[in-house]
Specification:
By secondary structure, the chain is mostly beta strands. It has a single domain, classed as Hexapeptide repeat proteins (UDP N-Acetylglucosamine Acyltransferase, domain 1, 3 Solenoid). It is 5% helix and 34% strand. Strands 1, 3, 4, 6, 7, 9, 10, 12, 14, 19, 22 and 25 form a 12-stranded parallel β-sheet that branches. Strands 2-5-8-11-13 form a 5-stranded parallel β-sheet, with no helix packed on it. Strand 17 and strand 18 form a beta hairpin.
Length: 228
């Protein structure tokens, strides 16, 4: 489930060429910077609501609304009919498709976002790819660097496999869903339609259409007056 076609419908992005020659989908992360440099045609065709900072190496498509307080450093390519909401921070080397939501206080860097994906509230997405209609809930964080030295590894045929990447957050397949306040650890791969429940601390590979649940029990006690 590691090839680009395993995870993503490549017709749902105008930037499918970034996967050319990639045996594993995460290899595209190393190509984002070069792809943008070769294909960026700076131009702002968006509507601004309030004051936003938009760098000179940025392309934004028609129908996209950029709200007050947004910072788009660039280089970045942003598609049509997107909603870039209040205080979003789009850093270097970001590609965002059409009809996407980048929400309040969300931060992106070195990321590829397919059409119709949603990153709506208080999120961090670094060195990651989100597929068509992938969605992450409020407060979801994608960790992209290990605490220990070394490259990110994934399990391939039961054996740790070096991706060659020091920074690698997550690959979210088409229609993947991640619940509020979940944390995805470096090298996470979610198959198409996979679901991670809220508050789950997830590491590793979740196959297509599988659900990761938090089984922690909730204790219910009698409410007593203070001092009793």
């Amino acid at each position: 489930m590691f090839t680009p076609a395993d995870l993503f419908d490549l017709t749902k992005t105008e930037h499918a060429a970034i996967f050319d020659g990639c045996q594993y989908a995460w290899e595209a992360l190393k190509k984002i910077e070069g792809y943008i440099a070769a294909n960026l045609k700076p131009g702002l065709h968006n509507q601004c609501e309030g004051a936003a900072f938009i760098g000179k190496n940025v392309s934004i498509g028609e129908g996209t609304v950029v709200e007050d307080g947004v910072m788009i450093k660039g280089p970045a390519i942003i598609g049509r009919n997107c909603s870039i909401r209040h205080n979003a921070y789009i850093r270097e080397n970001v590609i965002i498709g059409d009809n996407c939501v980048i929400g309040n206080a969300s931060e992106l860097k070195n990321a590829l976002v397919f059409n119709n994906a949603q990153i709506p509230h208080f999120n961090y997405v670094g060195d990651s790819i989100l597929g068509y209609k992938a969605h992450i809930g409020a407060g979801v964080k994608i960790s992209n660097v290990k605490l220990m030295p070394g490259n990110i590894e994934v399990e391939l045929d039961g054996v740790p496999f070096d991706t060659g990447l020091r920074k690698f957050g997550a690959l979210l397949g088409d229609y993947a869903e991640v619940g509020c306040n979940a944390v995805l650890n470096p090298g996470t791969i979610l198959g198409r339609g996979a679901i991670v429940y809220p508050n789950v601390f997830w590491r590793g590979i979740l196959p297509a259409n599988m659900i990761a649940k938090n089984k922690a029990e909730i204790e219910i006690v009698v409410k007593r007056p203070r001092g009793v």
